Amino acid sequence: MASIYLDHAATTPIHEEVQERMMAVMNQHYGNPSSIHAFGRDGRKLVDQARTTVAEAINAPFSTIVFTSGGTEANNLAIFGSAYAYQNQGKHIITTAIEHHAVLHPCEQLEKDGFDVTYLPVDELGKVKVEDVKAALRDDTILVTIMSVNNEIGVTQPIQEIGALLDDHQAIFHTDAVQSFGVYKLDVQSLGVDLLTASSHKIYGPKGVGFLYKKEDLHLQQQLHGGEQERKWRSGTENTLAIAGFDEAIKVLEREREERDRHYEALQNRLLMELEQQGITFTINGDLNARVPNIINISFPNTEVEMFLTNLDLAGVAVSSGSACTAGSIDPSHVLKAMYGEEDPRLTNSIRFSFGIHNTEEEMAIVAEKIKPIIDRLKKVVT
């Protein structure tokens, strides 16, 4: 039985061209980029090439890119680094209730350390209101951190409008762009952000590498102490192999972006059409008009998400609830809870489908065919 992978928001396979590039680097380039001899200079050249690629991709200066071990470390450096660097100007932070845990958990830790954090609500469409950000702003607000695209429902947030709002305020503006970097052409200048984070393994690159864009005049308190790599912002020998893979993944993305987006849109439309033709009752969670084409979160009434996921896995379909899995149990989605409240049945019957470049429209028909008997069985169990 051929498996169908529809969990690309969790991670993507490594693109064939990226694999080829990494194999070449693995075999030929092993010098430490901090070494001054020829082998080290060779490694440094690879890192600098990748830094140039990243900078050009988001319209940023070369010197503003800091390589990290991934999106989580980049978010932690952005949030802890700016909070501690500017705490003499205030200790108030604004974020939203639907952020990834790589943002929420650092904010929760800062609360324990004496900072005051405002968690903004979202509406039933999964969007934060710019006027709510404005109302929450205080003279002592030093950081606003709001994601570009939500990883569970695929809804976009008004980042450019918030950036304009903060233009005359002291608050540093950070956006977690992990889910938007592979879909949208991002421009940090027009977005008005001071900090932006992204990750390689969401765009068909290797795991274990990401970057933080840090505006040139911005200071951060260093979080990792050791050497003076990454202009002292992030100590530790650079992962040259992964960085080179990330470099290649971005180059392929820039070349294929529009084609990929059209493909994702076609896959999403085909899946929804096939579900309807199967007579399956469902609703879509989140704003239908402000979303990325590669993520869709669907509620299937009278089902239970854990049993649904297990049955789909047994049928050869890999999807996700988009929520945390701990010790074998699936917690209700904090994103859907923020949208609908704690008692809404959509918290426990919603599935995230996230599409990839290797998926086909024929697979969408197969998925719908597999979902139909599963739902029929689960309805009998639930009712």
TrEMBL record:
Q: Which reaction does it catalyse?
A: (sulfur carrier)-H + L-cysteine = (sulfur carrier)-SH + L-alanine
Identify the domain of life. Bacteria
Q: What is its EC number?
A: 2.8.1.7
Keyword Metal-binding attached: yes
Q: Which PANTHER family match?
A: CYSTEINE DESULFURASE, CYSTEINE DESULFURYLASE FAMILY MEMBER
Give the family from UniProt: Belongs to the class-V pyridoxal-phosphate-dependent aminotransferase family. NifS/IscS subfamily.
Q: What is this protein called?
A: cysteine desulfurase
Native source organism of the sequence: Alkalibacillus salilacus
